[in-house]
Amino acid sequence: MALREDDGLHQPMIRSNEPVPEPVSSALEDTLSDTSLSYVRRLRRATSIELATLFRLAAPAIIVYLLNNVTSMSTQIFCGHLGNLELAAASLGNNGVQLFAYGVMLGMGSAVETLCGQAYGAHKYDMLGVYLQRSTLLLMVTGIPLMLIYIFSKPILLLLGQSTSIASASALFLYGLIPQIFAYAANFPIQKFLQAQSIVNPSAYIAAAMLVAHILLTWIALYVFDWGLLGASLILSFSWWVIVVAQFVYILVSDRCKLTWTGFSVLAFSGLWDFVKLSAASAVMLCLETWYFQILVLVAGLLENPEVALDSLSICMTILGWLYMVSVGFNAAASVRVSNELGAGHPKSAAYAVVMVTLSSFIIAVICAVVVLALRHVISYIFTDGTTVAEAVSELTPLLAISIVLNGVQPVLSGKCFF
């Protein structure tokens, strides 16, 4: 495959002896444009085609995001069973500070999803590797100022009015998460690079295997070696780096990536400013969705009984975060579908993909909200044994259910604004 080395999405130059890949889901565009069929039959057939394609992409993507999220949250759960202070510290560290870095990195990494998806749909395969390297470089640089927030987290939390005991314990937990920042910087571009090619199963297998290993390593760190909060967070950082390395090894050895990964390129250092603008815009969109989580957690730490307030609110936020990953998975699948279809010149298919993914995510969110309401009196015991916290969580559950439904739609739609 001979491709022009530019950043445009023009049709590539293809050698005559090489087959031209068929556009993604061309059957959907043909069905939507088939005037010989009645409107109802067109919708029925198009729905069948799109749902099959969408869930083939969305299911593994959701599993990846859920498993990655559960890997982080399992550390919080382990810390919660050490005591209320440890749970409050891990919750404040995870949901109050670490979530900020997660949102920035995931948001900026979403630029790769847009660009790689369109390049793949337009058959400009070599540009996917360039975008991957360019994004990783940019995110690594972004990780430096984020690291400073972690280093000075204790005075920052004290300045925001947190108690000395919680601020000190949270800062200790965050020190061990500093390597995780740079794991995010490498992980999200790699994930988006693979997703743009509809390669999602390998990431799911890696995430599942690492979750099992992470739980075992965390148990050993806390209950065998008694490493405490710092040890728990260091194990979490280590687990994220294992995920990154495993995914990159897959890219290097897999035949499915031989056209899209051709090695390191100096093109990664070109066009950085335009890439910065696109990445920053996508990061702001996602950060606006996650900042209210952090504000609520920080405000909870200012209440009369901060440990119980932080524990109960953080449990609700953790549950919401798990279900939020379902919407993010649909967002990723929809972004792949839309960008691939636009790159292949299929506007009707792109528009129809947006409708179907939004409806699918909304229906699943409603079902999850009903389940959470039904389990409101017992769901907190996953995280802690305290009955006081359980009662507080039960009172917050109706608001949690409403948030679940709203988050079932908003993250999915926001991903389409990049096109």
From TrEMBL:
The UniProt entry's GO biological process terms, in alphabetical order, are: xenobiotic detoxification by transmembrane export across the plasma membrane
Keyword line: Membrane, Transmembrane, Transmembrane helix
Q: Where does the record place the region Disordered?
A: 1-26
Q: Which InterPro entries match?
A: MATE_euk, MATE_fam
What are the subcellular locations of this protein?
Membrane
A cellular component term, taken from the record's GO annotations: membrane
Q: Where are the transmembrane segments?
A: 49-67, 99-116, 137-160, 166-185, 205-225, 231-252, 282-303, 315-338, 350-375
Membrane-related topology note: Multi-pass membrane protein
Grouped into one coarse class, the protein's main location is membrane
* MF GO annotations: antiporter activity; xenobiotic transmembrane transporter activity
- NCBIfam families recorded: matE
> Which family does the record claim for this protein?
Belongs to the multi antimicrobial extrusion (MATE) (TC 2.A.66.1) family.
Q: What is this protein called?
A: Multidrug and toxic compound extrusion protein
Q: What is the lineage of its organism?
A: Eukaryota, Viridiplantae, Streptophyta, Embryophyta, Tracheophyta
